[in-house]
Task: structure prediction
Amino acid sequence: MCGIVGAVARHNIVPVLLEGLRRLEYRGYDSCGVAVHDGQGLQRLRSTHRVAELVAQTVRDGVQGATGIAHTRWATHGAPLTHNAHPHFSGPEGGAARIALVHNGIIENHDALRAVLEAAGYVFHSQTDTEVIAHLIDHLYQGDLLQAVQQTTRRLEGAYAIAVFCAGEPQRIVGARQGSPLVVGLADEGQYLASDALALAGTTSRILYLDDGDVVDVHLDGVHVYDRAGRAVTRVEHRVQLHTGEAELGPYRHYMQKEIFEQPRAVSDTLQDIEAISPAPFGERAGAVFDAIDQVLILACGTSHYAGLTARYWIESMAGIPVNVEIASEYRYRTSVPDPRTLVVTISQSGETADTLAALKHARGLGMMHTLTVCNVATSAMVRECELNFITRAGVEIGVASTKAFTTQLTALYLLALSLAKTRGRLNADAEEQALKALRHLPVALAAVLALEPQIMAWADRFAGKEHALFLGRGMHYPIALEGALKLKEISYIHAEAYPAGELKHGPLALVTDAMPVVTIAPHDELLEKLKSNMQEVRARGGELYVFADADSQIVVSEGMHVIRMPEHYGRLSPILHTVPLQLLAYHAACVRGTDVDKPRNLAKSVTVE
Result:
């Protein structure tokens, strides 16, 4: 989602700011901008194009400065137009700008603040909530930027991460956060702010993570942090190794394609330290926590929510523990029945998903203190907030539509189900050995599925001309059908829905015609015969079936029945294998349609607003 980079240094920091924005492009954005103090005053450039265009503008206009901020914006308030892009300025109307500010998040009381500021004579040039913050800081500024920001944040309601500097105080930036991530980078030649430590890769590995309510005063020679009460506090310095080689595209056409093909490696890396099934990979206290719980509550959004739905089948069938799976953005706003003997599991690729973080805090506020996160970023807020964690090793995921993060989440959740089963005496030595053997073979099995790409490309040519599609699955493959439909609509813009196959006759069958392809996940499991009956319901209405079938499922190609055979049946791990061809189908359909695969319209990678 939106990205912030700021710097105070002894040299021109424009290249650092723009490189930081480039590293944050994967989050998704629709405009970008940079502002610097050039020694005389404030300079600003903004663009509704890619960061590369902004770079070209800075070169063309000779923009330089030793203090500055930069931003990539994903539109919330106001269309993605130049006048709504960040940074926003404030100052006397018709005079030189005094304040420059960038902001992630949403200010909920912006309308009331706007009315106050308009009454004070401020003229607004955008439709954003962000410009309200800039004008409020300017309104309260009495020669000390830190004090003005502290006074401003006390009046803001909602979520924010901000970085702001002032024409009258060169070599100083003030940052603040509440509900939206902001980190500080420390270096000998300067000090830095960013919404994601990855933006500072290659610049510094010394990182401070700010807490909610913190305000940070960044000077050339150091930083000072203050809590929400205005007291000086110390935040622990972390050494973070930020590897960026994975962010190079290499021989692939798109990052999404690269990341699909990285899944065997990502799953292998996620499993590399697993030699036995135990609570240990989830944290030092995991054994005691697993003994103390009677149920599991999974909180997640989007693709991660579908991983949680799959995990419910595994945990309940293997460990015998009841599982509830909640969409995080809904959970915190409904009246639920808390139980302190619940393990609250959050799932997030970035570990910064705003709705999931808020749902986690809500669950803890209800007295459910046993918390675990499955996350791909070890330094994220989710990891810091949870008692236990499992860090997947998917590596950097650039494509907005999640692929390898999802399959590594599933792998981690399968390990969780096994661990809970063993804790409850439901996993004997033979079953544990078989489970470990299957997990070790999983990367090889994934590679075999990837070899199906040429056949899937042929299907994609047919899909590209369609505007609607239906995905069917049963049991633990129903969430995989949901994920397949999500992928197709995310990147190809083909409307797609998923249903449990048994629900066809309760409504969706009315939509079936030869113009709507019906994608079916058909593993050779106990529900196969019932699934075949559901497929016949489609054929009887003239529907076209596209079936991913296990080799021994005895589903044969016929008129209206297109079949791609999976290399093998993989038991309880079958959902992970069946995910991959659905990813490839969506990817190649999008390629044929000519959409922006890695940065689909209107979407963002790390969703840091409600």
